[in-house]
Amino acid sequence: MEHKDLFEENWKIFQHIPSLTEEEKKEIEEIRKRHEKVFCRRCDYCQPCSEEIPIQMVLGIRSMVKRMGEGILLKGRHREAIEKGRKCSASEMCKERCPYQLPILDLIEENLRWVDEKIKSSYSMRY
Ligand code: SF4
Description:
The chain is 61% helix and 0% strand. The protein is mainly α. The longest helix is centred in the C-terminal third of the chain and has 23 residues, at 104-126. Residues 40-46, 55-56, 59, 98, 100, 102, 104 line the site of iron/sulfur cluster.
């Protein structure tokens, strides 16, 4: 939750939790399974990173772009996080520390590839 309105909306829902159909339960379970090994919980237990990569920022870059727009890929702290991500030395210490056993190195690589593609396609559309 990022602001008070969302908290209030959630609170209203939790006070009158509707019962779920079997189909809805199945859908929730599928979503949970799909995210289990890729979703960063932003807990920072993987820190400290020897290369000072803000891992959760790199892993969460797609959702930040969704919320804040592609401009964050070009400058500011997200850009800095992306550049630090490129310096990953693949020590795998982070992976050992992550309580969710996320494949952090693969996810960093995947997200950096996504960032590069995003910048490339935005740039070629404008020029
Ligand atoms: S420990 Fe795992 S879940 Fe927590 S911030 Fe690091 S990568 Fe994300």
